[in-house]
Amino acid sequence: MIEANRRKLAKRLLVEITHLYEEVKEKGDRYLEIFAKQIKRRSFISSAENLAYYLAIRNHDLRELQAELVPLGISSLGRLENKTLVTLQSVIHSLASIAQVETTVPKPDMNGFTRGDEQLARNIFNVLGEQEIERKTLIMVTMPSEAAEDKKLIRDLIESGMNVARINCAHDNASIWIKMIRNIQKEASCLEKDIRIMMDIAGPKIRTEWVFTKLKNPKLVVDDQILLTSNFDDLPIHFEGKLVAGSQIPSIYSALKIGDPVLIDDGSIVTEVIETAGTYAVLKVTRVKGNAKRLKAEKGLNFPETDFSIEIMSEKDKKDIAFACQYADVIGCSFIRTAQDIKEIQKQLQIELGEDATYMPIMAKIETVQAITNLAEIIFTAASYQPFALMIARGDLAVETGYIRLAEIQQQIMWIAEAADVPVVWGTEVFDKLIKTGVPSRAEVTDAAEGARSDCVMINKGDYAVEAVKMLDHIFRRMQGHLHKKTPQLRALSIANLRSTPPLDK
Q1: pLDDT value at residue 4
Q2: DSSP 8-state symbol, 248
Q3: d(CA 367, CA 461)
Q4: Domain of 428: which CATH number?
Q5: 285, 302, 319 — which closes off a domain?
Q6: Sign of the four-CA dihedral 116, 118, 122, 124
């Protein structure tokens, strides 16, 4: 009776999953048709195919199906990111065997189960450097200005476990950067280490350029109004709010709609649009950190629900890219929103490098809602042309999506990247307290351990950066025995025992 019920369940699930397989194959093939012509890198072809099929299957809610597969002792489809079709084929053939029926679905190619991991390892090496056997998650460190002079700091970072040195082009200048690079290269050579250099181009960070008020040091509270404008000379006569703030990016004002949220200063001031015009918008404060806060110039502006276009590179960014093409191993691209942004950067690389542009790795920083919406197109466009990685820039991303949504979004980005065999860097505020004070919070340790699911974790500069690298190195070495991406690793546990074990009956 039990076996008959098992065969009956397998037969029903076989029909469902075969239908799912056919849908995924058909829709995935349609996705591939869109992007196939632009794939210049042969090594990305199999990755693109898998990504297309993964996107197709993730259009379905599989939760009930997964629960029904568990009692049959076969894959519940929970770890198919980089092996989508072969996993479906394997499940179908297992169900057919249990149901004792034939299937026309092709048998899985056994090499397909390891293809993704092998390709990802090659991509990690091309972009970020060589992984260690005992610690596959790499460590990236943002260089402070003193790295231009302090060789001992660089040596200590390398000896502690740094794999990638990040130079933030929003700070310092070319004369400082070249000193940093020479010091990094010299110390890496002395220690016989392969340390990659990532130069992070600033990109279009939107900020308050100036703030004007007739009041003395006013603090914003809920229900206050702010006028955000591109033109100080053309202010509306009727505005009676506390502050006028300037941001000269015209495309924003034409795109803003009544009710759109506008977040200021990393989300510490939350507003919504209550009036718009061609050159300005009136914002009403809906939430303030600490109930009251001053607004100053040079504070970030985020528009999570507004779809607008903005030049991805300033003239300074183009000069920085020219410098990076000479000295960097990988170029970081900030505030990527669309596939068109990637194309603009690729054009600039072609200007600097010609045909060799296809060999220059780039890293797209995912930090806006628009980038999440366009993630698949961004990956297809970038990885089709050159070595490519993603950074989950959790600072701005948290502001745009909200902290609750961030927890979910960062996992989803890693799943889609894994499906494309694209390396992922887990960034922003990792060990933030430890780096500043020398002592981590308990939550930071847990966050760092979660970062072991990624291919590289980035930490910021600070007085205790060396200590942070050492702790990350220890955590990642321990976590490697327990976790790979979404897959738990069942190494022997030292705590899996009883202190008092009763004797066995003879």
Answers
A1: 85
A2: -
A3: 20
A4: 3.20.20.60
A5: 302
A6: positive
pLDDT score at 214:
83
> Closest by alpha carbon to 405, among 483, 305, 265?
305
Q: Is 504 contained in some domain?
A: no
Contact between residue 281 and residue 225 where contact means Cβ atoms under 8 Å apart: no
Distance CA 144, CA 122 (A): 30
**Is residue 116 assigned to a domain?**
no
Q: Kindly state whether residue 502 falls inside one of the protein's structural domains.
A: no
Asked if pLDDT for residue 221 goes beyond 90, the answer is yes
What is the CA 156 to chain-centroid distance, rounded?
28
- Tokens for 189, please give them: 């050579």
- Percent of the chain clearing pLDDT 90 (strictly above): 78
Where does the pLDDT of residue 490 fall: very low under 50, low under 70, confident under 90, or very high at 90 and above? low
- Calpha distance 356→429 (Å, rounded): 35
Q: Is it the case that residue 120 has pLDDT exceeding 70? A: yes
Count of structural domains, the chain: 3
Regarding whether 418 and 454 lie in a shared domain, the answer is yes
The share of the chain scoring above pLDDT 70, in percent, equals 95
Range of the domain at 187: 132-204+311-488
Are 187 and 217 part of one and the same domain?
no
Checking if the pLDDT of 121 tops 70, the result is yes
Q: Are residues 153 and 6 in the same domain?
A: no
Are both 236 and 137 inside the same structural domain?
no
For residue 201, count CB atoms less than 10 angstroms from its CB and return exposed for 0-12, middle for 13-18, buried for 19 or more. Answer: buried
What is the DSSP track for 81-102? Answer: TT-HHHHHHHHHHHHHHHHT--
Q: Over 80: is that where the pLDDT of 486 sits?
A: no
491 has a pLDDT exceeding 90: no
Angle at 268 between CA 267 and CA 273, to 5 degrees: 65
| C-alpha Rg value of the chain to the nearest Å | 26
Say whether both 182 and 215 belong to one domain.
no
Is the Cβ–Cβ distance between 239 and 227 less than 8 Å?
A: yes
